[in-house]
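hi! just following up on the protien thing from before. the input was this:
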Amino acid sequence: MRVTVDTARCVGAGQCVLNAGSVFDQDHDGVVEVLDPAAADEHPDAVELAATLCPSGAITVHRD
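and the predicted 3d structure came back as:
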């Protein structure tokens, strides 16, 4: 699993951090950032949920 984020689309809702805090964080402006790409494989359900709940669609999950 690979996770990418489109920071230009992010609206700072924080659903990513609430659901997969070991994978995602927010910068000082509230924009999503990937903390640990490897953690996505350890928490696939949480990452999928974060991507689904993201109101702006800024998170993409790639199944490699």
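The first helix runs from residue 15 to 19.
Helices lie at 15-19, 39-42, 44-53.
cheers
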